[in-house]
Protein backbone atom coordinates (compact mmCIF):
# COMPACT_ATOMS: atom_id res chain seq x y z
CA UNK A 1 0.00 0.00 0.00
CA UNK A 2 1.31 3.44 -0.90
CA UNK A 3 1.35 5.83 2.04
CA UNK A 4 2.07 9.60 2.17
CA UNK A 5 5.67 10.75 2.55
CA UNK A 6 6.16 13.36 5.27
CA UNK A 7 7.55 16.63 3.94
CA UNK A 8 10.21 18.96 5.27
CA UNK A 9 9.04 20.66 8.46
CA UNK A 10 7.19 17.64 9.86
CA UNK A 11 8.46 17.20 13.46
CA UNK A 12 8.92 13.41 13.09
CA UNK A 13 11.75 14.06 10.61
CA UNK A 14 13.77 15.61 13.44
CA UNK A 15 13.23 12.83 15.97
CA UNK A 16 15.87 10.22 16.76
CA UNK A 17 14.26 6.86 15.98
CA UNK A 18 13.62 4.32 18.72
CA UNK A 19 14.86 0.75 18.49
CA UNK A 20 12.17 -1.83 17.83
CA UNK A 21 11.74 -5.55 18.48
CA UNK A 22 10.54 -8.28 16.13
CA UNK A 23 7.14 -7.95 17.87
CA UNK A 24 6.68 -4.36 16.66
CA UNK A 25 3.04 -4.15 15.49
CA UNK A 26 2.50 -4.87 11.76
CA UNK A 27 6.24 -4.75 11.03
CA UNK A 28 6.11 -6.87 7.84
CA UNK A 29 3.22 -4.76 6.53
CA UNK A 30 5.07 -1.51 7.36
CA UNK A 31 8.16 -2.73 5.50
CA UNK A 32 6.09 -3.79 2.47
CA UNK A 33 4.30 -0.42 2.46
CA UNK A 34 7.62 1.42 2.66
CA UNK A 35 8.95 -0.44 -0.40
CA UNK A 36 5.70 0.25 -2.31
CA UNK A 37 5.86 3.93 -1.36
CA UNK A 38 9.56 4.23 -2.28
CA UNK A 39 9.05 2.59 -5.69
CA UNK A 40 5.98 4.74 -6.40
CA UNK A 41 8.09 7.88 -5.76
CA UNK A 42 11.08 6.53 -7.78
CA UNK A 43 13.30 6.61 -4.71
CA UNK A 44 16.28 4.42 -3.83
CA UNK A 45 15.79 4.62 -0.07
CA UNK A 46 13.09 5.44 2.47
CA UNK A 47 13.30 5.72 6.26
CA UNK A 48 10.46 5.17 8.72
CA UNK A 49 10.41 8.82 9.91
CA UNK A 50 9.55 9.76 6.31
CA UNK A 51 6.27 7.87 6.72
CA UNK A 52 5.59 9.22 10.20
CA UNK A 53 7.22 6.53 12.36
CA UNK A 54 10.01 7.55 14.73
CA UNK A 55 11.65 4.11 14.68
CA UNK A 56 15.05 2.81 13.51
CA UNK A 57 13.99 1.28 10.21
CA UNK A 58 14.88 2.04 6.59
CA UNK A 59 14.70 0.27 3.25
CA UNK A 60 17.00 0.57 0.23
CA UNK A 61 16.97 -0.63 -3.37
CA UNK A 62 19.80 0.85 -5.48
CA UNK A 63 18.69 -0.77 -8.75
CA UNK A 64 17.79 2.62 -10.36
CA UNK A 65 21.43 3.73 -9.94
CA UNK A 66 22.64 0.70 -11.93
CA UNK A 67 21.72 2.36 -15.24
CA UNK A 68 24.49 4.95 -15.01
CA UNK A 69 27.07 4.87 -17.80
CA UNK A 70 29.85 5.81 -15.35
CA UNK A 71 29.87 2.40 -13.66
CA UNK A 72 32.16 -0.56 -13.99
CA UNK A 73 30.51 -3.92 -14.70
CA UNK A 74 31.08 -4.91 -11.06
CA UNK A 75 29.48 -1.68 -9.75
CA UNK A 76 26.55 -2.13 -12.14
CA UNK A 77 25.88 -5.65 -10.83
CA UNK A 78 26.33 -4.58 -7.20
CA UNK A 79 23.83 -1.71 -7.51
CA UNK A 80 21.38 -3.72 -9.63
CA UNK A 81 21.12 -6.44 -6.99
CA UNK A 82 21.22 -4.44 -3.75
CA UNK A 83 17.88 -4.47 -1.95
CA UNK A 84 17.96 -4.51 1.85
CA UNK A 85 15.93 -3.70 4.94
CA UNK A 86 17.80 -2.22 7.91
CA UNK A 87 16.39 -2.40 11.45
CA UNK A 88 18.02 -0.84 14.54
CA UNK A 89 21.07 0.16 12.50
CA UNK A 90 24.12 1.40 14.36
CA UNK A 91 27.00 3.13 12.55
CA UNK A 92 30.25 1.59 13.81
CA UNK A 93 32.71 3.34 11.49
CA UNK A 94 32.85 5.94 8.71
CA UNK A 95 36.17 6.05 6.90
CA UNK A 96 37.97 6.78 3.66
CA UNK A 97 37.95 9.90 1.53
CA UNK A 98 34.95 12.19 1.65
CA UNK A 99 33.41 12.60 -1.78
CA UNK A 100 30.64 14.76 -3.11
CA UNK A 101 27.46 13.59 -4.78
CA UNK A 102 24.32 15.45 -5.75
CA UNK A 103 21.67 14.21 -3.32
CA UNK A 104 17.94 14.64 -3.14
CA UNK A 105 15.30 13.41 -0.71
CA UNK A 106 11.69 12.31 -1.12
CA UNK A 107 10.77 14.48 1.90
CA UNK A 108 12.38 17.52 0.26
CA UNK A 109 11.11 17.41 -3.35
CA UNK A 110 12.78 19.50 -6.07
CA UNK A 111 15.84 20.29 -3.92
CA UNK A 112 19.19 18.75 -4.79
CA UNK A 113 22.61 19.69 -3.44
CA UNK A 114 26.13 18.26 -3.34
CA UNK A 115 26.77 16.48 -0.05
CA UNK A 116 30.15 15.12 1.08
CA UNK A 117 30.23 11.74 2.79
CA UNK A 118 32.83 9.11 3.63
CA UNK A 119 33.39 6.45 0.99
CA UNK A 120 33.20 3.44 3.34
CA UNK A 121 31.11 2.55 6.40
CA UNK A 122 30.76 -0.33 8.85
CA UNK A 123 27.20 -0.88 9.97
CA UNK A 124 25.59 -3.18 12.50
CA UNK A 125 21.90 -3.90 11.90
CA UNK A 126 19.14 -6.49 11.83
CA UNK A 127 17.55 -7.61 8.56
CA UNK A 128 13.77 -7.99 8.26
CA UNK A 129 13.97 -11.51 9.73
CA UNK A 130 15.88 -10.08 12.71
CA UNK A 131 19.18 -11.69 11.80
CA UNK A 132 21.97 -9.54 13.27
CA UNK A 133 24.64 -8.48 10.77
CA UNK A 134 27.78 -6.37 10.71
CA UNK A 135 28.83 -5.35 7.20
CA UNK A 136 31.16 -2.97 5.38
CA UNK A 137 29.66 -0.96 2.52
CA UNK A 138 31.32 1.44 0.09
CA UNK A 139 30.60 3.69 -2.88
CA UNK A 140 27.02 4.60 -3.78
CA UNK A 141 25.54 1.93 -1.52
CA UNK A 142 27.40 3.40 1.48
CA UNK A 143 26.15 6.86 0.50
CA UNK A 144 22.50 5.78 0.30
CA UNK A 145 22.82 4.00 3.65
CA UNK A 146 24.39 7.12 5.23
CA UNK A 147 21.55 9.28 3.88
CA UNK A 148 18.87 6.94 5.28
CA UNK A 149 20.79 6.41 8.52
CA UNK A 150 20.78 10.19 9.00
CA UNK A 151 16.96 10.07 8.83
CA UNK A 152 16.74 7.72 11.82
CA UNK A 153 19.06 10.13 13.67
CA UNK A 154 16.80 13.13 12.90
CA UNK A 155 19.25 14.57 10.35
CA UNK A 156 18.39 15.76 6.82
CA UNK A 157 20.81 16.15 3.92
CA UNK A 158 20.18 19.90 3.96
CA UNK A 159 21.90 19.99 7.38
CA UNK A 160 25.14 19.02 5.63
CA UNK A 161 25.32 21.88 3.12
CA UNK A 162 26.88 25.33 3.47
CA UNK A 163 25.07 28.31 5.02
CA UNK A 164 25.08 30.00 1.62
CA UNK A 165 23.33 27.06 -0.02
CA UNK A 166 20.86 26.88 2.89
CA UNK A 167 20.02 30.53 2.29
CA UNK A 168 19.53 29.90 -1.44
CA UNK A 169 17.04 27.06 -0.85
CA UNK A 170 15.19 28.68 2.07
CA UNK A 171 12.17 29.67 -0.05
CA UNK A 172 11.89 26.17 -1.56
CA UNK A 173 11.92 24.66 1.94
CA UNK A 174 9.24 27.12 3.07
CA UNK A 175 7.12 26.17 0.06
CA UNK A 176 7.40 22.48 0.98
CA UNK A 177 6.27 23.20 4.56
CA UNK A 178 3.29 25.17 3.22
CA UNK A 179 2.28 22.36 0.88
CA UNK A 180 3.13 24.26 -2.29
CA UNK A 181 5.44 21.53 -3.59
CA UNK A 182 3.85 19.33 -6.25
CA UNK A 183 5.76 16.05 -6.53
CA UNK A 184 4.08 13.23 -8.44
CA UNK A 185 3.64 11.16 -5.27
CA UNK A 186 1.51 11.54 -2.12
CA UNK A 187 2.89 13.78 0.61
CA UNK A 188 1.88 15.04 4.02
CA UNK A 189 2.95 18.63 4.62
CA UNK A 190 3.77 20.32 7.94
CA UNK A 191 1.43 23.31 7.56
CA UNK A 192 -1.18 21.83 5.25
CA UNK A 193 -3.23 18.67 5.16
CA UNK A 194 -1.79 16.07 2.71
CA UNK A 195 -3.34 15.35 -0.68
TrEMBL record:
Active site residues per record: 148
Needed co-factor(s): Fe(2+)
Catalysed reactions, as listed in the record: N-terminal N-formyl-L-methionyl-[peptide] + H2O = N-terminal L-methionyl-[peptide] + formate
GO biological process, alphabetically ordered: translation
Co-factor note (free text): Binds 1 Fe(2+) ion.
Gene Ontology molecular function: metal ion binding; peptide deformylase activity
Keywords: Hydrolase, Iron, Metal-binding, Protein biosynthesis
EC numbers on record: 3.5.1.88
One Pfam family of this chain: Pep_deformylase
Domain of life: Bacteria
Coiled-coil regions listed in the entry: none
SUPFAM superfamilies: Peptide deformylase
Residues annotated for Fe cation binding in this entry: 105, 147, 151
Homology family: Belongs to the polypeptide deformylase family.
Role according to the record: Removes the formyl group from the N-terminal Met of newly synthesized proteins. Requires at least a dipeptide for an efficient rate of reaction. N-terminal L-methionine is a prerequisite for activity but the enzyme has broad specificity at other positions.
Name of this chain's protein: Peptide deformylase
Amino acid sequence: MIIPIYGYGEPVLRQVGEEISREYPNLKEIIANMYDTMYNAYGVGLAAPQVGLAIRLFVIDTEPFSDSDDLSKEEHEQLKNFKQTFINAKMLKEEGEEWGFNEGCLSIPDVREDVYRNERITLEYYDEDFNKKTEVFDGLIARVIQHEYDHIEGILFTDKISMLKKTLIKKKLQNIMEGKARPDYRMKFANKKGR
